Amino acid sequence: MSKILVAMSGGVDSSVTAALLKNEGHEITGVTLKLWGGEQDKGCCSVSDVDDARRVAQQLDIDHFVFNYGDQFNKHVVQPYVDSHVAGMTPNPCIECNRHIKFDALVERSHRLGFDALATGHHVRLSGPDEGARLRRGADMEKDQSYVLYMLSSKDLAYLRFPVGDLSKEDVRKYATELGLRTADKPDSQDVCFITADNGREKFLAERVELHPGSLVDADGKVVGSVEAIELVTVGQRKGLDLGGNSGRSYAVAVDVPSRKVRVGNASELKSGSVALTDFSWAEAPFSGEVLAQTSAHGKPASGWLDANGTLTWDSKRQRVAAGQAVVFYHGDLVIGGAIAKQGALPEG
Amino acid sequence: MSDSAGMRTTYLDCAASTPIRPSVLELMMPYLRDQYGNPSGAHRMARKARAAIDDSREQVAEAIGFSPHGIVFTSGGTESDNLGIKGFSDRPGFVMCPETEHHAVLHPVEVLGGKKVRVTDEGQVDLDHLSELLKSTTSLVSVMMVNNESGAICDLDKVAEVIEDISPGTLLHTDAVQAVNWVDIKKAAAKADLLSLSGHKFGAPKGVGVLALREGVTIQAQMLGGGQEAERRSGTHNTAGIVAFGAALMELTSSRDSEISRLTKERDRLVDGLLATIDRCAETVPRSSRSAGITQLVFEGIESEALLVLLERDNVMASAAASCASGAMEPSHVLAAMGMDRTAAAGSLRLSMGWCTESREIDVALKVIPKAVEQLRVSL
């Protein structure tokens, strides 16, 4: 029997995580993190989600605490999210929350409180012995969350448990229903927890920083249109680009905030043969060579060659990766590491 | 007190709530079982209930030095504070309070666009700033008599003097929810025009409170309906709760002096013991200016959320700053107002005692708290 702290978001996966570990005979304590103090829809940490987590803990007869990591969340997740947009990048706040809050601050506190392990409801599996534990994709490919956990090292993983990773989402819900947990039919959380559907990203950023209009330029540098807020443009975006109705299907191909320019182009220009990367994390030792790489949470992985200088060259051209997005490397279904797409110069035509 | 597993609990959270006094519970029972008539009705059962309420009203009035006509029974401290402050929303001028008030005062003051008075680093009202902000157009100043987090005692007479000098027409409200256990309200609140109390802080049940008004003070009702409490607070009376409120307040008043002397000794034993065994630990407010029952400590390099988890494992119940809607600890606005930085304030612990506190609980706390702090300070 181990003493295990379970991070309970108020969703069905972490509810079942607590239930499964309790059934295995472990001494379970639930904890819900209060991260965001501002306005929000139902996300990771709204009051009603905390209520759901607390209720599930009561149903399972386990202790439950709420930890306030609001200051750290603001410092490590919200502010970098804003800064990243200001720099014309496309941040992934869920990854930063995992990196700095759940698997750093919370893990540290869990150690101090004498827990033997921390469990979460992520759909991922562990492979190998504790000491050399590696992160594997979850059994349910549709729900696999290995992409957002790529930063976990073998040392981190040795302390972690992901019991729902072996289950399909359907089985998770079935089990929650059998136990009569109130979260059994709760929809999955989708978007960034601190951005509300009503106000959106634009209003959130506009309340915090000054947004600037920008020019849309073609491959020759000719101005072909405009955009209201350059900080909100993401590579691959089509909507919201005012091209005066003259250029068919154009996409944002690259964003350069300092010059207030968005390079637009057709679908083929949106493709690129490589992506330059920075801020690598490795499960074990750094690696270069053949990898499968995934560029979004549920994107399809593609093969490529990662060189020692940090450039990933795709076997065949793919849609450009927006600067700031994570690129995660796999060998089969094992995560070997990940990195962040660098900001480059505007590509020439 | 024991939990379900038969473990004896060390309860050092009396500022949050206290158990119902056994004698008080006995007095409530008839009104929960047999005397269930609606006190606003006309028949005999109603009159019996009404008589019990009026008895309680007189007990309360006598204990705190107000007229029975000025005693308004409410659902608790928060409602009393809201009624006392929002009850002024219909008149010109603005309301004011110190930054360290309970949220039951702060939020209504904010909603009414009121002003906030600074406090000193020892949690005392900055009287110069009060003088600066106070205008003849200030309708009400609300000042807590004993702070619920730090235990700092406010000398209400000094606040009243400033008001008298600058704007004699301004009324003074005091949240005496914590103070009632530690201060002779009759004397200390003699200059207050309105005063809030909450039953469960002194051995009555949750769900009953009082807003006391001096003769001639009128307020705009916030709860409209059947016109109970002389049109000041509608809603069927909580008969058993009101009976308990009066009885518990009487018991408190008659034992207050001896309890203060008993608990001051226990407090000194507790705090001196902790300060002697734990490094980098301090009281937030000097003992000379705080109530016997509340001690707030800050531990450097500790997060109180984690500390509370460890204390609970050893059956010690305490608290840190206020909880928010989710149940998470909020950074203390009281310590922030006293000029403490957020990191230091995040390591606060409030140990509060009351009528139920036993000497053996202090013994336990003296063993458990240093051990927990040590565990959290170990480098990983």
* Number of spatially distinct domains of chain B: 2
Spatial order of the strands in the main sheet of chain A?
Answer: 12-15-14-13-16-17
| CATH 2nd-level architecture of the largest domain in chain A | 3-Layer(aba) Sandwich
Our measurement of the CA-to-CA distance between the termini of chain B, rounded to an integer number of angstroms, reads 36 Å
- Reading off the top of the CATH hierarchy, the class of the largest domain in chain B is best stated as Alpha Beta
Share of helix of chain B, binned = 40-55%
| Domain module tally of chain A | 3
Q: Which structural class should the secondary elements of chain A be placed in?
A: alpha/beta
Please report which band the strand proportion of chain B falls in: under 5%, 5-15%, 15-25%, 25-35%, 35-45% or over 45%.
5-15%
Q: Which fold name corresponds to the CATH topology of the largest domain in chain B? A: Aspartate Aminotransferase, domain 2
By secondary-structure content and strand pairing, the structural class of chain B works out as alpha/beta
The CATH architecture classification of the largest domain in chain B is: 3-Layer(aba) Sandwich
Helix content range of chain A: 10-25%
Poorly predicted spans of chain A = none
Strand and helix order of chain A: EHEHEHHEEEHEHHEEEEEEEEEE
Strand order of the largest sheet of chain B: 2-8-7-6-5-3-4
